[in-house]
Amino acid sequence: MPQENSHPSSIRSEYEAHGADAYYRQFGDEYRNPHEAVVRKLLKIAVTRWKLDLSNVLDLAAGSGEATLALRDLGAMVSGIDPYTSDAFAARTGQVAERFTFADVAAGALVGRRYTLIVCSFGLHLCEPSRLPGMAQQLALVGERLLIVTPHKRPVIRVAWGWALEGEQVLERVRTRCYLAERR
């Protein structure tokens, strides 16, 4: 069983042992991102640097609400989506997270919605590479900006998928990339 303040390599070894989906299915109620402090700092920097509109934010792959809590502290109106950690999200934020998977989103589960900002913190690098283009395209239909916080260089979001890179910020080996939806 993972610990609340487990070291990142422990989570990585859990992914290797169980696979990411199985890990979150089994331990999602107890999940806490051990990088929460740096996520909070990066979100504050991003909001100022890119003058992000926080009036209707989607926290995609919301975990236990690390990004939601930080964004709410910055004045954001946030809703969350996470198929595996929705109970942990509710316990920490007092909100209900919808249980859409990346596959659901790629298949159009968010069609008809509109978000000023979509934030995915420590989640999108886990999306299957074959699903990523469709996922990004669907997000571009419903969001104005996409902010990805990742411990990797992945994922790389391409212009052909509907997003143009505005900039990148790195702090303590964690990257934040801000994308603007390309309306064609």
Give your account of this protein's structure.
α4 (66-73) links the parallel β1 and β2 (78-81). By secondary structure, the protein is of the alpha/beta class. The termini are far apart. It contains seven helices and six strands. The chain has a six-stranded mixed beta sheet with strand order 2-1-3-4-6-5. It has helices spanning 8-18, 20-27, 36-49, 66-73, 86-93, 102-106, 132-142, and strands spanning 57-60, 78-81, 117-121, 145-150, 163-171, 174-181. The protein is globular, with a radius of gyration of 15 Å.
Task: Please describe the topology of this protein.
Blueprint: H1 8-18, H2 20-27, H3 36-49, E1 57-60, H4 66-73, E2 78-81, H5 86-93, H6 102-106, E3 117-121, H7 132-142, E4 145-150, E5 163-171, E6 174-181
Parallel strand pairs: 1-2, 1-3, 3-4
Antiparallel strand pairs: 4-6, 5-6
Helix pairs in contact: 1-2, 3-4
For the structure shown, list the relevant keywords.
alpha/beta, disordered N terminus, six-stranded mixed beta sheet, 184 residues
Write a short abstract of this structure.
The protein is α/β, with parallel strands linked by helices and 184 residues long. It is 35% helix and 20% strand. Helix 3 (36-49) crosses helix 4.
